[in-house]
Amino acid sequence: MRYIPIYILSFFINLFFWIKNWKHLRSTLKRKKVLTFRGIDDVRAFMGLQDYEKDKYRDWMPWVITALKRGKDDCDGLAVLGKWALSKIGIKARLVRLEKKGSRKGHMICVAPVMKVMVSNKQVINFAGQRHWLSDVFHYFNGRYDIIDGIQINGGIKNAEEKG
């Protein structure tokens, strides 16, 4: 099977999900709108309520409303929810792909570099200190991933920090 870019595949999976579940679209959109968070502790509690479920067929990224309706997802969906939840309290975050060179497996997280916050699956982690966010992520995962956000860490974390 030829490679289909994840964003194209994700669009169609989300679209078909909502064609099948169209009766729940209005209530899910309303839930998305009314869900509020007062601070990072509310985001932490919300993420803790999510269920982790590995994708059954291929890796894809749900829309926020799809992940809210499903109530479960793998690291991609939980990172998407984390980014959305952080944005609700004014924290700008981004999705970051972690990979191990030579492996097809990876991990998706949400990182807010300025606020030193990371969402990994159901956990919301605060980083302390003055390290660069790449270094925080690298050390949190004990060097398990050597490609962070497309930046190869093989030259050491200092070289990667200069690139990112």
Helix-strand blueprint:
Blueprint: H1 6-20, H2 25-34, H3 40-49, E1 51-52, H4 64-70, E2 72-73, H5 75-88, E3 94-99, E4 106-112, E5 117-120, E6 123-126, H6 133-140, E7 147-148, E8 151-152, H7 157-163
Parallel strand pairs: 1-2
Antiparallel strand pairs: 3-4, 3-7, 4-5, 5-6, 7-8
Helix pairs in contact: 2-4, 3-5, 6-7
Give the helices and strands as they follow along the chain. HHHEHEHEEEEHEEH
What is the beta-strand fraction?
Answer: 15-25%
Tell me the structural class: alpha+beta
Strand segment count: 8
Radius of gyration, in Å, reads 17 Å
- End-to-end Cα distance: 34 Å
- Summed over residues and divided by their number, the pLDDT gives a mean of 89
CATH topology: C8orf32 fold
Helix content: 40-55%
Number of helical regions: 7
Can you summarize the main beta sheet?
A: 6 strands, antiparallel
Any overview of this molecule?
By secondary structure, the protein is an alpha+beta fold. It is built from seven helices and eight strands, in the order αααβαβαββββαββα. Strands 6-5-4-3-7-8 form a six-stranded antiparallel sheet, sandwiched between helices. A two-stranded parallel ribbon has the order 1-2. It is globular, with a radius of gyration of 17 Å. 27% of the residues are buried. The model has no long low-confidence stretch (mean pLDDT 89).
Q: How would you describe this structure in keywords?
A:
six-stranded antiparallel sheet, alpha+beta, 7 helices, globular, 164 residues, two-stranded parallel ribbon, C8orf32 fold
